[in-house]
Amino acid sequence: MSITTSSMKTVRPRFYKTTRFQALIKDIVVYILLIFLSFVFIFPFFWMIDASLKIDKQIFLWPPQWIPNPIYWQNYVIAFTNQYLPFATFFKNSMILEVGIISGRLLSCTLVAYGFARLEAPGKNFWFGVLLATFMLPGAVLLIPKYILFNKLGWVNTYLPLIVPAWFGESYAIFLMRQFFMTIPRELEEAAVMDGANTFKILRYIIVPLSTPVLAVIAVLSFKDIWNDFMTPLLYLNSASKYTVSIGLAYFSGQFTVAMGPLMAASVVMLLPLVIVFFIAQKAFVEGISLTGLTGR
User: Which pLDDT tens digit goes with each residue over 261-286?
Assistant: First the structure.
């Protein structure tokens, strides 16, 4: 018995040391991999900011000159004061679309998602399946029919083809909201009904305040998609005074030359709203992404 006990005492420290050493090696490998991947993802943004502070001759040097010398702030001045390239106007136009589309999408999708999640109606599950089936439709397939429709309505070269469809719902946003609404306990709604609340009051005072995470997810994803959308505004807008920032960036690329410095400066400024919106809504965004995958009954 004493031999067995002593042998166990000698084996345990060796086992613990081996386990701790393996865990340490695993952590080192993971951190090295994370640092490498972080560098890979951050490098394009670093190069964009670095190039925005150089003259074109320095940008194309090989081997590259990593630190601008001297720092050339004139690229930002050229990008925003060129009378033939009103980038500030493009910025304002994009914000108009952001407000119109996001507000319409949040309002319409909240109403539809609440109906799918809580209200009882014949064929509700069938129509929800039809909604999910629209995920398989490529956006390019709908470009020509939608353009013909909006052209018949006389909406071409206005913001209406871009804003109005958002007020009739969006399938992916409805799906996310419906999944989140199903995680909210029904007891809260039952208590509100006992207090005399109707459906719209329940939605306004209970569902919406508790749904901040999923609303943040929809708002951030929508903001990114609208801000980066190039094809849709280019299709419906013909006047340069109504162009968005994504179209404005294409103006820096000529037929034979590219104004690389001003282009990078404009790209940096275009990126800032996305970064600001994400950091403001980061907590709610991450929470919403983690919760919308859950289902309830």
Answer: 778 888 888 888 888 888 887 777 67
